[in-house]
Design goal:
The longest helix is centred in the first third of the chain and has 26 residues. Helices cover about 20% and strands about 30% of the residues. The radius of gyration is 21 Å and the shape is globular. It is built from two helices and nine strands. It has one domain. It has about 170 residues and is α+β, with helices and mostly antiparallel strands. Strands 1, 2, 3, 5, 6, 7 and 8 form a seven-stranded antiparallel sheet that branches. The chain has a two-stranded parallel ribbon with strand order 4-9.
Length: about 170
């Protein structure tokens, strides 16, 4: 009888372990490794394409950023993510398809104050589809935090926000 109880207890613990691991994964911040890209392409990036009409200042800054000779893919395996300054503690970004020049906007993020040595207000990797914005989205001081997005099917999808105030002393993983 004791043997049967011991086996049932072990079986129940083994069955509960994956559920507990999934719950812990949902509680923790998303990581770059959670959204891997295995096929990394390094190629020159096409000129960004905008709707017909006058090019505004922001579009011109993006053209200047992408227009440098040797600009190559740096995000999600085959895209170029440009980070463009818009003030002292303000940046915005754009994801550019390297062949077509199609542009997907990345929200403006601003107002970070305390940061670590390798701080990037828009943090991303070539081998991951995850983007982490640090600060207030759209310059909103009430929205200060780490904002996690995943790039899928040509669009950004918000995963979650972790409020931090204006303290960004820990690097993203």
């Amino acid at each position: 009888m004791r043997y049967a109880v011991a086996i049932l207890t072990i079986a129940a613990l083994c069955a509960a372990a994956p559920v507990q691991a999934q719950a812990k994964a949902k509680d923790r911040a998303p990581r770059f490794a959670d959204y891997p890209v295995t096929n990394l392409v390094t190629m020159r990036v096409a000129k960004p394409k905008f709707p017909k009409g006058e090019i505004d200042d922001a579009q011109q800054r993006l053209l200047d950023t992408v227009g440098h000779l040797g600009t190559r893919t740096n995000f999600a395996g085959r895209y170029f993510l440009a980070v463009v300054g818009c003030g002292t503690t303000c940046v915005w970004g754009a994801i550019v398809h390297p062949k077509s020049g199609r542009v997907v906007g990345v929200p403006t993020v601003a107002s970070w104050f305390e940061t670590h040595d390798k701080f990037e207000p828009i943090d991303f990797r070539h081998n991951s589809r995850l983007i982490v914005l640090s600060g207030g989205r759209y310059e909103n001081r009430d929205d200060m935090g780490l904002h996690y997005y995943v790039f899928e099917n040509g669009k950004l999808r918000h995963l979650r926000t972790i409020k931090t105030g204006d303290n960004f002393m820990e690097p993203n993983k």
